[in-house]
Amino acid sequence: MKKLWLIFAQTTTVGLAVWFALTTLYPQWRPGSALLPPPHKESTVPAVPPAVPVQGGVASYHGAVARAMPAVVNIYTAKAVKSRKHPLLNDPFFKRYFGDRFGGDDAPRASSLGSGVIVSDKGYIVTNNHVVESADEIEVALADGRTAEATVIGTDPDTDIAVIKIELDKLPVIEFADVSKVQVGDAVLAIGNPFGVGQTVTMGIVSAMGRSQLGINTFENFIQTDAAINPGNSGGALVDVKGSLVGINSAIYSNSGGSLGIGFAIPASTVKQVMEAIIKDGAVTRGWLGVEAQDVTPDLATSFKLKDVQGALIARVVGGSPADRAGLRAGDILQSIAGQPVADSSAMLNLIAALKPDEEVDMQAYRSGQLQTFKVHIGKRPKLNP
């Protein structure tokens, strides 16, 4: 009996060992394996791309920086500062005895710095208007160490964009990104010359799109970011993780005036549109309606018995303007322009500006609770600061 029991135990042990070896090599033979997918089939679940580019096993944005940084330039400007002299200093008798010891004829000069982006191998550079505004001298320093004097091709104060040009060969050019594909949460890099220390890169994310009514520019459609933007970054590049231009850094909202705040960049789509117009015509021509408008609030919507809280309430019509000639008047609530819905007064301004002067379009507006259509012959937007 003991011998039979020993044989049984040994046989069982060998059998279990063989079963363990086979199920290790062929796991589909295990009980319940029918619930698992066959080992030779690939999963149909798409892989989630890494949030941060990985190069050589290390998370890095080096590739994007290497592509974009050569096209970002440092801009140094200088302008004469007009100072009022005491009338006595111009008196010949006073000059006879005291000469120019109280101040000569040379006016003091103020210098400032900013950044810019090379957008054409012909030497065109895009920057902020406030960087080069009223400058007598503009010097551009490239990332490769070259410098050149720049001339202003044209400016657009309404969007705070300026185009300048340098005469150098073999210029690096940045690539424009498709802004329509930019989403909140996308990683972005701000490249510029903060505090004049040289090119610097900061990283953040896109925290909002289409910011407007901030009181910074006349036409606003900002990309909002938390990437650090310091003094001197103005006019620099905001790029995506591929190194393509997403926007031009323009301003920062900060209690301290430093980088601890919210940054705003002009979208690359707006930059390209304004840049092309300036290069072609030297200025940007926009449509004009000739009204002052305000947003429709919930209280106003209830008062005017509107179904939706949207549109632009016309507060004033300029006499002799396109709106005046078309029959629009104060109290009308614009709902659509050339078939495009009007969300608020800022959207109204942008829609009208995009129209060509002398173009005739249909506009719909509520008047006394009735939706009416007006044919408007668009005018040319006048310069507010000639």
UniProtKB/TrEMBL annotation:
Presence of keyword Transmembrane helix: no
GO BP terms: protein quality control for misfolded or incompletely synthesized proteins
All copies of domain PDZ, residue ranges: 278-356
InterPro entries, per the entry: PDZ (IPR001478), PDZ_sf (IPR036034), Pept_S1C_Do (IPR011782), Peptidase_S1_PA (IPR009003), Peptidase_S1C (IPR001940)
Pfam families registered for this protein in UniProt: PDZ_2 (PF13180), Trypsin_2 (PF13365)
Protein origin, superkingdom: Bacteria
GO MF annotation terms: serine-type endopeptidase activity
Signal peptide: none
Cellular component, GO annotation: periplasmic space
Positions bound to substrate: H130, D160, G232, N233, S234
Protein's UniProt keywords contain Protease: yes
Keywords for this protein: Hydrolase, Protease, Repeat, Serine protease, Signal
Active site positions, chain numbering: H130, D160, S234
Record-stated family: Belongs to the peptidase S1C family.
PANTHER family, alphabetized: SERINE PROTEASE FAMILY S1C HTRA-RELATED, SERINE PROTEASE HTRA2, MITOCHONDRIAL
Protein's name according to its UniProt entry: Serine protease DegQ
The species this protein was found in: Andreprevotia lacus DSM 23236
